[in-house]
CD166 antigen (Leptosomus discolor), 560 residues
Amino acid sequence: PLALGLYTVNAVYGDTITMPCRLEVPDGLMFGKWKYEMPNGSPVFIAFRSSTKKSVQYDDVPDYKDRLSLSENYTLSIKNARISDEKRFVCMLVTEDDVSEEPTIVKVFKQPSQPEILHQADFLETEKLQMLGDCVARDSYPEGNVTWYKNGRVLQPVEEVVVINLQKIVNKSTGLFTMTSSLQYMPTKEDANAKFSCIVTYYGPSGQKTIQSEPVVFDVHYPTEKVTIQVLPQSSTIKEGDNITLKCSGNGNPPPQEFLFYIPGETEGIRSSDTYVMIDVRRNATGEYKCSLTDKSMMDSTTITVHYLDLQLTPSGEVTKQIGEALPVSCTISSSRNATVFWIKDNTRMQTSPSFSSLQYQDAGNYICETTLQEVEGLKKRKTLKLIVEGKPQIKMTKKTNTNKMSKTIVCHVEGFPKPAVQWTVTGSGSIINKAKETKYVNGKFSSKIVIAPEENVTLTCIAENQLERTVTSLNVSAISIPEYDEPEDRNDDNSEKVNDQAKLIVGIVVGLLLAALVAGVVYWLYVKKSKTASKHVDKDLGNIEENKKLEENNHKSET
């Protein structure tokens, strides 16, 4: 490279400078020399080499002590290049007749350190011009230039908005430059996440280059322009018993730390942090809620509806009624929205609401009236009615001859609640029958059954007793030899009376036959006795032969 038409050597600070002697070695060369020129033009010799003795001598120049090396071809090398080495050096070749000279210009370059943004502002405020920081790049040669960037774009100076001052300081001992560029900046709200950086442009041996600093983001403070109130948790519905948190926020930076909350029914605002908590809210908490800054500027509002659900069951709890009584039941609902009502009896959902005009045993059970607000999660109410239907024991007895003709089944059909205890006895003897079998007790009804094979007519008694009353009913049962009419277990009272009448008729006929046989036997015995007496008194009774014949005929008829 040439500088002003002269040969130039570009060197890097700290490296070795190599300067060839660009003269052709002439014949008769005696020696070669290197010198540099002072600013005033006076020469300073620094190296000498004889062509005959092949010896090298270095002049006593403090700046170049132990730094010089002169080769056989008269190339001069200078170690550890310094800024002070930027001079005009001259190679001299001397003969007896002539002195030849060739100058070389030395240029030294030093890359600056990576720039840093120092003295950074803790935060920036909008609408205020303030010092953002200093971009510092050290140890550069020659001096460089500093440019500021925001989000990758050059920041151009704008009066009262962007003010840049560049200061360059040179180190007298090294000759290196330190560049310091200070930036004053008036930020806007949009600069909250802006990235600021600076770039140093410098020259090296191969031309112009740049080094960029690490980007910096500043906390930008700006006033609140809008206040917002929220209800937490952010549920679409609120019900009685919930906890509500009102949160007020401002869009400033830093955000406001205190607010005024306005609650329905309160005339003055309540000063609080950014949250206001309400525990176990009731329906009277429904209304409009507001919050504002403490200076009562910038207000926001929201409406809260607290949903509720009331259920009134009449009667409720445990209720005891007598069979056949009426029981009006009502389930009344009061709610903030339309509610769904349904009934459950003994864990089974009912199709209609219960209504009791005449209570039966099967009406007893556990009733639940339940209601829900489908749009409000978790809002449901239920109340229970435990209905007990009591009744005195009622008894119906049936009998029938079993198909094998060897036994008879007697059944005592019992109704009542609490469940009656059943006992069988034989009328007359008073003996207790313990071999009865009972059916399952369902809806206040069950049956007690015995199987017997009586050799003679008997009367059985069924006794049913609970806490309300003791009921006794008896039934005549014929001997096994006399079949009983089959009677369905669900017969009515009229049929029962008819069966009893038939049994009485059969018993009467049997008793009548037995009496007739007894009378016939007595008559026959009297006849025989009279016949023996007549043989002894034949003559006496001859006149009575016709009477005896008639009597014999009558006796025969009676016997028959």
About this structure: The CA atoms of residues 129 and 160 lie 7 Å apart.
